[in-house]
């Protein structure tokens, strides 16, 4: 089934996604978690990937339901924080 | 609305757990998850919090009767927001379904934090899912909600065991290489079958609700 790990909902974006994921996972484990880098080092790969995804979100008509969810359940940083508020 | 709650301790350091968390979907055995896309990702310069928005795509094996209710979409989608705060060592994920939400809304919150007693070697996991069914008859709603809570519990148990296995494999690799691995092998992907957040599973299995409706008709 090929690379099943890095499949995009839009087949035409999968290769770009795989490249970006590889870059991100390396950065996350080797830099971010070690506190060595707070800069996104995969900018070019990200730009290629997200351009593809944004175009596909529109053509697959996912954009409207996505935007509605962003509005209805924004999951803001405040909401996130409240999930880890000290208990008792 | 019905609530499902669960917690668990993973005997692995928090940073390893978060690294494993990025690489779990999709895989051969959890075939209902067919895609994962990152929609937004940035680090807040003030707090250094890494915030990620993802779109998780699931196959929808819908029977014909249900297809009429939900509009016959082939895929269902889940939106997930995660925030990782290195300074407090917390990973929080919130997710909700984008499709079929006129029938069933699942809002899930998952947290991973270092254990109080053994912060360097143990990670505390919590999971909370609010499940709300919208159908015409309240008794049917009750049945759907009960069924969903039951499925959540079943999946969560196997999910924890499977994630333990994933962490064990990853740790062995990390110890061998001295760094976190980037590439996870096929055998590990199989272990990732049952993961700890189950919104997508519940949605994919909503087809089984057919039995509920048949019982009532």
Mean pLDDT level of chain A: 88
Strand content of chain A: under 5%
Uncertain parts of chain B: 180-197, 210-217
The biggest sheet of chain A amounts to: none
The level of helicity of chain B is: 25-40%
Could you tell me how far the N terminus lies from the C terminus of chain A, measured between alpha carbons in angstroms? Answer: 49 Å
Could you tell me the number of beta strands of chain B?
Answer: 7
Spatial ordering of strands, largest sheet of chain B: 1-7-6-5-4-3-2
Instruction: Please report the number of helical segments of chain A.
Output: 4
Structural class designation of chain B:
alpha+beta
Strand content of chain B: 25-35%
Number of domains of chain B: 1
The CATH superfamily of chain B is: START domain
| Unreliable spans of chain A | none
Oligomer: heterodimer
State the gist of this model.
The complex is a heterodimer of chains A (88) and B (217). Helices cover 60% and strands 0% of the residues of chain A.
Task: Characterise this structure.
The complex is a heterodimer of chains A (88) and B (217). In chain A, helix 1 packs across helix 2. Helix content of chain A is 60%, strand content 0%. Chain A is built from four helices and no strands. The longest helix of chain A has 19 residues, at 14-32. Chain A is mainly alpha-helical and 88 residues long. Chain A has helices at residues 14-32, 43-59, 63-72, 77-83. Chain A starts with 13 loop residues before the first helix and ends in a 5-residue tail after the last helix. Chain B has one domain: START domain (Alpha-D-Glucose-1,6-Bisphosphate, Chain A, domain 4), CATH 3.30.530. Chain B is 35% helix and 33% strand. Chain B is built from six helices and seven strands. In chain B, helix 3 (138-177) runs antiparallel to helix 6. Chain B is globular, with a radius of gyration of 18 Å. The two termini of chain B are 23 Å apart. Classes of the chains: A mainly alpha (88), B alpha+beta (217). At the A-B interface, helix 1, helix 2, helix 3 and helix 4 of A face helix 1, strand 2, strand 3, strand 4 and strand 5 of B.
